[in-house]
Design a protein that fits this description.
Serine Threonine Protein Phosphatase 5, Tetratricopeptide repeat, mainly alpha, disordered N terminus, 468 residues
Length: 468
């Protein structure tokens, strides 16, 4: 009799737990969304997942799929509702907590995000992206000591991790410990080839009075304009559930700038499959394929861009440039000509036409084409510069010098123009002018070091002394 009661009690406990789980799953399903304008596949998957989660089966797996669909496509509050329940249903799964924390942090719910990332640290202590994001959260919340502890823990697991070093450098910088910040940042920029820490190390060098170091860094690279977040596989893997073409394009751009062209290509191919007539993402994919040396694939997409949108001048220009690079000069000329018929107001295509004419021995016609490009876009120096060099070939030196002056008016201190004017003064034996141009060259950090050194050598050989 006791055994029977025990069995009944056990069975009742199992039934109660099952009922509780089913209630939780139902509570995690957000209200239906108006998604009529979204792709058919997205709507179908969303509907099917909702039916499996909210209907008879009350499937935890379906709720997980819902969370991914919502999160990957920008329905963030809905995703958070799913995560809050998934954390209870599967408390040993750190992905739910990590994804929830990223959203909470984005909405400014700092303490809740910190609590989630704290649990991730317990469940998955080796998953460093979660620790780094926790460290950033703490730093932004002015909790420098706690942030230092988190970044230091990352360094114990991964010595010289650039993102952890960058976090500690930011803390040193805010505390005005300049030398300590410098030491960490020099390691960061060395390990990432200036993809991280560029702006901060320039600031440190300038504060320490080392303006030459700051200027040299500015001369070798330019700031990206945006902080690049650490790679986060638990977030990135959700892009396979993304149906938002614009979001895929943004993520592909981030992947490409972070040195991951394989991921960039994957997301752009998905975007193209979702929106085959969207020339912007197709053009972006072509650029990634060029970087991967897939000329045939890039050409296919660029050609499709021109047929889909004949007025898209950049597609014609890049297609022609690709043909030129692969040795098909005649094909490049044909594409430029076709592009100008479709886009007669494109200054870039007129410059390409001018180059073809010049390189084909038709310099006088090239001059007219460069003049057209300048008329269409007069605020960039490159066309003036190329026109000037063409005029020099025709021995029309005064006209060429006038165009170089116009190039500097369009873009003051344009590095190639400064270098050419300095070289012209040196070879012409005008030392006073050469000195003036060399001073401007040496003040312009974007003049390549090798070019500046060649000019100094030419000056020394021509005048018998070093440039001042």
């Amino acid at each position: 009799m006791v055994t029977g009661l025990a069995v009944v009690a056990a069975g009742g406990g199992w039934w109660w737990l099952a009922e509780t789980r089913q209630s939780l799953v139902s509570a995690g399903v957000p209200p239906a969304l108006a998604v009529e304008s979204w792709p058919v596949e997205f709507r179908g998957r969303l509907l099917h997942a909702r039916e499996r989660a909210a209907g008879r089966w009350k499937s935890t797996a379906a709720l997980g799929e819902l969370s991914r669909l919502y999160h990957a496509n920008g329905f963030l509050r809905q995703a958070m509702q799913c995560y809050a329940v998934l954390e209870k249903l599967e408390p040993a799964e750190p992905r739910w907590l990590h994804r929830h924390a990223t959203l909470l942090a984005g909405f400014g719910e700092t303490e809740a995000a910190r609590a989630c990332w704290g649990q991730v640290g317990t469940l998955a202590p080796d998953y460093l992206p979660a620790k780094l994001k926790l460290g950033d959260l703490l730093l932004k919340s002015n909790q420098a000591d706690q942030a230092t502890a988190v970044f230091s823990e990352v360094l114990q697991r991964a010595p010289d991790h650039p993102y952890a070093l960058l976090g500690l450098a930011r803390i040193e910088l805010e505390a005005q410990r300049w030398e300590a910040a410098r030491a960490r940042l020099e390691t960061v920029v060395a390990k990432t080839n200036y993809a991280l820490g560029y702006d901060l190390i320039v600031t440190v060098y300038e504060h320490l009075g080392e303006s030459a170091c700051a200027q040299a860094i500015r001369g070798r690279t330019r700031a990206s304009g945006a902080y690049r977040e650490v790679a986060d596989p638990w977030i990135d893997e959700m892009l396979a559930d993304c149906f938002d073409v614009y979001r895929l394009s943004l993520e592909a751009g981030l992947a490409s700038r972070s040195g991951d062209p394989v991921a960039a290509r994957r997301w752009l191919e998905r975007a193209v499959s979702l929106a085959p007539e969207d020339v912007a993402v197709r053009f972006q994919l072509a650029g990634v394929l060029v970087e991967q040396r897939d000329a045939a694939g890039a050409r296919q997409h660029l050609e499709r861009c021109t047929t889909t949108s004949p007025a898209f001048a950049d597609a014609w220009a890049h297609w022609a440039a690709l043909l030129q690079q692969t040795g098909d000069a005649a094909g490049a000329e044909r594409v430029v000509a076709a592009g100008l018929r479709a886009c007669p107001e494109s200054p870039g295509l007129w410059v390409m036409r001018a180059r073809h004419l010049r390189d084909g021995g038709r310099a006088a016609e090239a001059v007219a084409a460069f003049e057209t490009a300048i008329r269409l876009r007069s605020n960039e120096a490159d066309a003036y510069l190329e026109l000037a060099t063409t005029l020099f070939r025709l021995e029309r030196v005064p006209a060429g010098l006038k165009r170089l002056e116009e190039a500097l008016a369009a873009e003051p201190e344009h590095p190639p123009t400064l270098a050419l004017l300095a070289y012209h003064a040196i070879t012409g034996g005008d030392e006073a002018a050469a000195q003036a141009w060399m001073q401007r060259v040496q003040r312009q950090p974007r003049v390549a070091r090798e070019q500046a050194e060649r000019l100094r050598t030419a000056y020394r050989e021509r005048f018998g002394r070093s440039a001042p």
